[in-house]
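Per your request, structure below.
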């Protein structure tokens, strides 16, 4: 898409539908926001960390951090914190019996409260311990003392492939192709060892591929593992576990995954190592918009981003990124063999880059930033109202169901903390995810135009917003809902100006209503807030 337009003045309004609609940085508000409610609102941090498995900087900043350094867990003396993810923290530790340094992976306190998460954590330790391969992080044991448990792992001093990528980026250069291929051959061999005993990783990405002192890559973080043994398949925590930038289409849809799903993630990782970018990118930074691209858009030829990519390597990468699992390499071992084989390719020269539509433009970065001043329920409310305004373009009942579920989230009260609160919340999140995908792909209908498709995406994004793992993701999904609504209006040749005027009014009312602090879940939005604004 073309660069965002220059922000419009504070008293400006978007023009009527035209070849290039725009919404500037002050599309939602002008002037300073009103003061926020000083009362702190309970954060559902545990829900966020499980759904996305990524660090939540906003909620972590408001919570009292746990300090384990200096404490003892059986024969292990816990040292400094090395890093953390969505569910757990990793500490350096000393084994007083063997004298060797180790790494301890320990669940965060909010996750230790949930029995299902603890069961999954211990399952991770047992499953990883079954994988004996030089390209998989070695597990020594699962240590427990009281309510504290830790996966005891080998300590790897070489950082991760993410660190390597950032290093090359800081030097404004790209990773050598031979180096990237070597790393991925090793990682694929480790994943193949897991596949051979019926384990699918489901969360392969550069930050989960670690390096030892000799630069050998080892796959880690099997916290999203799926054991393919009938009834042992863990579905209680929701099926869409992974990182959106690397997830296979079937994983994004919530379908059951196979080793071919890991092949897709390996291909996405190699694409990023080679080009410095993910196969798919979205301006809104919306996880839902990213998943839609994995499901529906063909992967770009890596030679478009890095012309010196050998044709045979581009062919291997593109086959690993096929939409259908049957069209990919069946296992990670086959993917590794293809990388080692190299050789001539039958792939044609890449065509020109596809031009992105420029018929509607909005400064989604500015809109997303402004929305983050609201509590999460208010963001969901704003997204739902944006989607409602274009529902007439596509009255498919699946859109109504998705919007209805999202609006129910806006109206409900937060439940007090309990051991089963997270499990119940995740069931709701899984339902919202399913509803959002059903809305995004309603099938062939009488309203099956491109405008109807964009209206469907607006409703789907609103439902995804209600299931977002944190304020940033909710704001990104809401911005995607708004942009889809603008696209639907433009394609249907309807005026956009009234839409943005109403969206601005909604934003101001949500800022003024006492709905909770910025960065919190917030309280239910009273219906009377919008009595004079339809």
């Amino acid at each position: 898409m073309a660069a965002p337009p220059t922000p419009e003045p504070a008293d400006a309004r978007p023009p009527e539908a035209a070849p290039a609609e725009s919404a500037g940085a002050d599309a939602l508000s002008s002037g300073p926001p009103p003061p926020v409610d000083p009362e702190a609102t309970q954060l559902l941090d545990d829900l966020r960390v499980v759904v996305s498995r990524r660090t939540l900087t906003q909620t972590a900043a408001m919570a009292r951090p746990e300090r384990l350094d200096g404490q003892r867990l059986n024969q292990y003396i816990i040292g400094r914190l090395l890093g953390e993810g969505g569910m757990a923290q990793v500490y350096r530790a000393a084994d007083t019996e063997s004298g060797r340094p180790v790494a301890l992976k320990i669940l965060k306190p909010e996750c230790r409260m949930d029995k299902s998460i603890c069961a999954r954590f211990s399952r991770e330790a047992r499953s990883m311990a079954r994988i004996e391969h030089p390209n998989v992080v070695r597990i020594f044991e699962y240590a427990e003392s009281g309510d504290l448990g830790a996966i005891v792992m080998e300590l790897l001093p070489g950082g991760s492939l993410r660190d390597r990528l950032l290093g090359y980026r800081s030097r404004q250069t790209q990773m050598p192709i031979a180096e990237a291929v070597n790393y991925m051959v090793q990682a694929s061999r480790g994943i193949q060892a897991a596949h051979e005993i019926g384990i699918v990783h489901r969360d392969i990405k550069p930050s989960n591929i670690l390096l030892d002192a000799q630069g050998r890559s080892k796959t880690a973080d099997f916290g999203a593992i799926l054991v393919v043994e009938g009834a042992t398949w863990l579905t209680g925590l929701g099926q869409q576990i992974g990182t959106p930038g690397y997830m296979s289409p079937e994983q994004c849809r919530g379908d059951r995954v196979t080793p071919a799903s890991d092949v897709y993630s390996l291909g996405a990782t190699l694409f990023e190592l080679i080009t410095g970018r993910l196969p798919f990118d979205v301006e809104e930074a919306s996880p839902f918009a990213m998943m839609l691209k994995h499901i529906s858009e063909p992967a770009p030829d890596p030679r478009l981003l890095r012309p010196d990519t050998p044709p045979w390597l581009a062919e291997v990468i593109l086959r690993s990124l096929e939409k259908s699992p049957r069209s990919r390499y069946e296992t990670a071992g086959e993917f590794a063999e293809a990388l080692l084989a190299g050789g001539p390719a039958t792939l044609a020269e890449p065509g020109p880059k596809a031009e992105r539509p420029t018929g509607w433009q909005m400064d989604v970065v500015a809109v997303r930033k402004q929305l983050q001043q609201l509590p999460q329920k208010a963001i969901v409310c704003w997204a739902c109202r944006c989607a409602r305004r274009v529902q007439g373009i596509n009255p498919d009942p699946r859109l109504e169901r998705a919007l209805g579920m999202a609006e129910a989230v806006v109206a409900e009260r937060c439940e007090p903390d309990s051991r089963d609160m997270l499990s119940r919340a995740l069931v709701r999140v899984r339902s919202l995810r399913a509803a959002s995908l059903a809305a995004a792909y309603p099938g062939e209908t009488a309203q099956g135009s491109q405008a109807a498709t964009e209206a469907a995406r607006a409703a789907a994004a609103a439902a995804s917003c209600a299931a977002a793992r944190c304020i940033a993701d909710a704001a990104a999904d809401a911005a995607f809902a708004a942009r889809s609504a603008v696209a639907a209006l433009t394609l249907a040749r309807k005026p956009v100006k009234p839409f943005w005027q109403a969206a601005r009014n909604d934003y101001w009312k949500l800022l003024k209503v006492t709905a909770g602090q910025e960065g919190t879940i917030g309280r239910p939005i009273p219906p009377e807030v919008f009595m004079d604004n339809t």
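The two ends are 31 Å apart (CA to CA).

Regards,
D.
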